[in-house]
Amino acid sequence: MGLNGGVKVTVLAGGVGGARFLRGLRTQLRKAYPNGDGGSTAEVTAVVNTGDDMWLTGLRVCPDLDSIMYTLGGANDDERGWGRKGESERVSAELTAYGVGWPWFTLGDLDLGTHIARSSFLRDGLTLTEATARLAERWNLGVKLLPMSDEPVETHVEIILDGKRRIVHFEEWWVKHRAGVPAQRFIQVGADAAKPTPSVRRAIEQADVILVAPSNPVVSIGTILGVPGLRSALREARAPIVGVSPIISGAAVRGMADACLTAIGVETTAAAVAKHYGSRSRGGLLDAWLIDESDAASAPVIESAGIRISVVPLWMRDPATSTQLAADALAAAAR
Ligand code: GDP
Ligand code: CA
Which HAMAP family does the record match to this protein (predicted)? Predict the structure, then answer.
């Protein structure tokens, strides 16, 4: 860091929290390392959770990659929080009439365009990494998007429904049941055969800074860390690893991350998530951790676990607060 440009920042990210954080980071790097052309000389690579992916209506759907792509591409429906703005649902209504897909998981018309294009690339034999790059070409993201692996890894959830044990796709638990049925456990189907792609390995090895976005610690970051070999690659990286708490004042800010944490026996607090990730100096992941001002009282206990703490505002209310959060994360890395 501190070199004139060429700074490489690698971010582990899930969907909505990851997307907002990356948007702030892109702005911050354009300010701190301008390339004179509105962009930045810094390079940002996002390693994105693909555990929520699925085949639906014959198409490969990658919710977290798409949330990030739409948000950075300026096409996200910021009011609803996900999907494309100006979206319509004519095709979805037709699919429902045919009994195809999940009626509770609406795919917008514009969004379907993305899934058709992706599926077409995959059918042509491209890897998911290559297909993602092809989709991203259109959007001028200023951030390189990488799926965590090219092999499919799908998060499934064991639940008890009407007295029966069932295993459902993560999205069924999350969207259909609104995470209202307690999860017994999460299963990463396909993880055994998965590995970090060469691009992911390079992004980790060559990074000057590694950031863990304020994303779901279980089904976004936890899924990424569950790819065999990825955790050790991170631990061996020369860059400092700085995480941003997705928990503020004992609550998941947006979404239902608390239901996931409860399922794995981790309290919904910034301190408990930090300890769950662990101190890198003691075999875990983190060198430093950002917590919200409202959680300042938990700083000493996290520091005694071997993780450096920065206390800053963690709410990404708008582009300005997201940008400041990214600046604070970079400052923590430079300390
Ligand atoms: P998903 O894949 O769409 O569920 O999104 P992520 O995995 O990126 O994470 C969603 C989580 O991000 C939420 O449950 C929150 O815990 C966290 N999050 C969302 N918005 C904010 C924010 O403004 N600040 C912080 N610190 N965390 C946030
Ligand atoms: Ca997700």
Answer: CofD
